[in-house]
């Protein structure tokens, strides 16, 4: 008889615990997660690869079409000045080579405007003119090399720009940033609690 009483007591305790647990169960049906298709996400990786393959292609992927002419204008401008400096570098380099090779048939240095102001038969003028040709050659070579480095940097900037734009593609930057407040009544331990409900919308 005592055994039956103990069994009934244990069953009652288990049933009451189960009912208590059901009473505390949180309703999660209101919280729903919408599955996101990974294929529909804007991919920064794709934008980076596209811009690395062809400058401006990543900007087109990000729908920033207005940046594409700026990118090619930048490349065109840098490329033009690379060619311009390289042309002068080759001119002064050849003039220096013709001046110092002791070959009378190679006289491209006479095409240099400054040669008119030097008496090349005079050793002092000859040395000054030679030094000037060397310095000018180095000047244009240095400018050309710096512009080549700038071209590489501009190419990298094009890739970084596409990547950053892709990361911010889905970011809400609208001006609808508002803070709403209203009175609120909450129940806490069977008592009414009055307060203010603030909602920050962005």
Keywords:
202 residues; mainly alpha; two-stranded antiparallel sheet; 5 helices; 2 strands; 57% helix; rod-shaped
Structural features, described:
The chain is mainly alpha-helical and 202 residues long. The protein has helices at 2-23, 44-53, 57-61, 67-100, 123-167, and strands spanning 178-188, 191-201. Strands 1-2 form a two-stranded antiparallel ribbon. Helix 2 runs antiparallel to helix 5. It starts with a helix and ends with a strand. The model is unreliable at 13-39 (pLDDT under 50).
Bin the strand percentage: 5-15%
Question: What is the number of helical segments per DSSP (H or I, 4+ residues)?
Answer: 5
Biggest sheet descriptor:
2 strands, antiparallel
Name the overall outline.
rod-shaped
pLDDT averaged over residues: 79
Q: Going across the major beta sheet, what is the strand order? A: 1-2
Q: What is the CA–CA distance across the termini?
A: 68 Å
Order of helices and strands: HHHHHEE
What are the low-pLDDT stretches, counting only 5+ consecutive residues below 50? 13-39
Level of helix content?
A: 55-70%
Structural class designation = mainly alpha
Radius of gyration: 39 Å
Count of β-strands: 2
């Amino acid at each position: 008889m005592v055994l039956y009483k103990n069994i009934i007591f244990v069953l009652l305790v288990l049933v009451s615990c189960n009912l208590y647990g059901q009473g505390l169960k949180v309703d999660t049906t209101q919280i729903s997660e919408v599955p996101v298709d990974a294929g529909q996400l804007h991919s920064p990786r794709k934008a980076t690869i596209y811009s690395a393959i062809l400058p401006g292609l990543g900007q087109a992927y990000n729908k920033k079409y207005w940046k594409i002419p700026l990118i090619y204008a930048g490349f065109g401008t840098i490329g033009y000045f690379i060619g311009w400096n390289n042309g002068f570098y080759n001119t002064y380099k050849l003039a220096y080579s013709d001046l110092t090779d002791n070959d009378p048939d190679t006289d491209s240095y006479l095409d240099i405007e400054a040669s008119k102001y030097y008496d090349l038969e005079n050793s002092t003028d000859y040395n000054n003119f030679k030094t000037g040709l060397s310095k000018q050659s180095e000047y244009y070579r240095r400018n050309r090399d710096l512009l080549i480095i700038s071209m590489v940097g501009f190419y990298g900037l094009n890739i970084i720009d596409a990547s950053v734009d892709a990361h911010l593609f889905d970011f809400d930057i609208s001006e609808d940033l508002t803070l709403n407040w209203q009175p609120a009544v909450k129940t806490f331990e069977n008592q009414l609690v009055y307060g203010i409900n603030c909602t920050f919308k962005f």
